[in-house]
Design brief:
The protein is an alpha+beta fold. 48% of the residues lie in helices and 16% in strands. Helix 2 runs antiparallel to helix 3. The chain is globular and about 50 Å long.
């Protein structure tokens, strides 16, 4: 945690950040090369042909973090696309996936590990993940939040509401990025439960029934039923369903 306070010290705390988590740790040799690639990208990162004041780092040999001071040059559109293409290129070069949003990172005895959705659910159910286990909230949006809200105990993160108490859908107070993640989780979890008779759902019952949420009647009718209708469809249908669900909480 102290190391984060010394990260990007030349940038203001309001600087915007993006965190990309690899599905596996890089080897020492790979980490050196990735760090060099990050430095090279940040040095050439532009927006509307203007140099972006930015920083980049590889943390724990697993997280690529980009930060940008937008006071003079805003990062949007093509400049964001270029950063995404850079991350995609890293993934292809080293055979890793940076875009699995349900690959959850957590810490055990100072070592950062990760598990897929089902694996993390099993760890929570078995008690291997406790209330004080450090997890990584890759949804933070500013440098200040990176330093204070990225590495947090399980009990203080959105992870506890999703994995421990069932599927809790978004409320208007959530950020746009976290709201979309919760909606996507609900869609994926619902389809997973229907297709595979999810044991967690059978054990806890319908999480929508047990967890009071705003507009629950409307949610059941419009959200849950709609996703059951299109849940087996392709990627485009899933995106449409996710978008329509998120409109309920804006």
């Amino acid at each position: 945690m102290n190391e984060l306070n010394n990260l990007f010290t030349e940038l203001p705390t309001a600087s915007r950040v993006w965190i990309y988590q690899s599905n596996r740790p890089f080897t020492a040799d790979e980490a050196d090369k990735v760090s060099h690639d990050i430095e090279a990208f940040v040095a050439e990162w532009t927006a509307h042909k203007l140099k972006v004041t930015a920083g980049g780092a590889l943390l724990y040999n697993r997280f690529v973090v980009l930060a940008a001071d937008e006071r003079e040059v805003g990062v949007s559109g093509c400049s964001i696309d270029s950063s995404v293409h850079f991350i995609m290129g890293l993934g292809a070069r080293y055979g890793v996936d940076f875009f699995d949003r349900f690959n959850v990172a957590y810490q055990v005895d100072g070592e950062v590990r990760s598990a897929n959705r089902a694996g993390f659910e099993a760890l929570v159910a078995d008690g291997a993940i406790t209330a004080d286990t450090i997890v990584y909230n890759n949804l933070v949006e500013t440098l200040a939040d990176l330093r204070t809200k990225w590495e947090v105990p399980f009990k203080d993160s959105w992870h506890s509401r999703v994995f421990e108490f069932g599927v809790v859908l978004p409320s208007p107070s959530l950020s746009h990025r976290e709201r979309n993640l919760r909606v996507a989780w609900f869609c994926t979890h619902t389809r997973h439960c229907e297709e595979r008779s999810c044991e967690a759902t059978e054990r806890r019952g319908n999480p929508l029934r047990e967890q009071p949420v705003p507009n629950v009647a409307l949610l059941r009718i419009v959200g849950y039923r709609f996703w059951r209708l299109v849940g087996c469809g392709g990627c485009i249908r899933r995106r449409i369903a996710t978008s329509l669900l998120s409109l309920l909480f804006i």
